[in-house]
Amino acid sequence: MRRTSFEDMNCSLAQCLEVVGEWWTLLIVRDALFGVTRFDDFHTRLGIARNVLTQRLEHLIEHGVLTREPYQDNPVRYDYRLTPKGRSLWLVVTAMRQWGDEWAAPDGPPVQTVHTTCGNLATVEPVCSECGEHIAPRDLRPVLGPGAKDPSLLPSR
Asked: Of 14, 53, 15, 12, whose CA–CA distance to 31 is shortest?
């Protein structure tokens, strides 16, 4: 069943969901961030149907998240590599993983990350890009940006 498209919605989150909102897509991106590049490795790790994996990989290529690069000629086989656009999904995947660790992993995180510089377990915390303070939703207020086409994007207060 095809979901409703957000293609015409003037919202950056909706546009992100157009690219990575399908069920398997972020798991493919997660594995690519972990260094998986081969179709068979994605297939084995995820247990996803081959036709669905093919569709999701093609979608990610079409949207510039992955590139397909041949590594073998006969038969032709490909590596699927993250583009800068794909690598920038790291923060999205990390935020979702950390949410899952806190709220959906009763036995503890299945995977943890170690900061290679200091050697400690690390979580990603939101900080202001200008002053460096930690921020929470209550510390932010939305304002219209240059791409706004409709002032109703902002909630009324």
From this structure: 53
Phi first, then psi, for residue 76 (nearest 5°) are: -70, 130
Contact by Cβ (8 Å): 24, 45: no
Answer yes or no: are the C-beta atoms of 42 and 66 closer than 8 Å: no
Q: Which residues of 47-81 are buried (b: 16+ CB within 10 A; e: fewer)?
A: ebeeeebeebbebbbeeebbeeeeeeeeeeebbbe
Contact (CB, 8 A) for 56 and 22: yes
Angle between helices 50-62 and 39-46 (to 10 degrees): 120
Measure the CA–CA gap between 9 and 66, rounded to whole angstroms: 24
Q: What is the mean pLDDT of each run of 10 residues along the chain (157 residues)?
A: 76 91 95 97 97 97 97 94 98 96 96 96 95 95 89 74
- Is residue 78 a contact partner of residue 70, using CB atoms and an 8 Å limit? yes
N residues, the chain: 157
Q: What residues have CB less than 8 Å from 56, skipping those under 6 apart?
A: 22, 24, 25, 28, 48
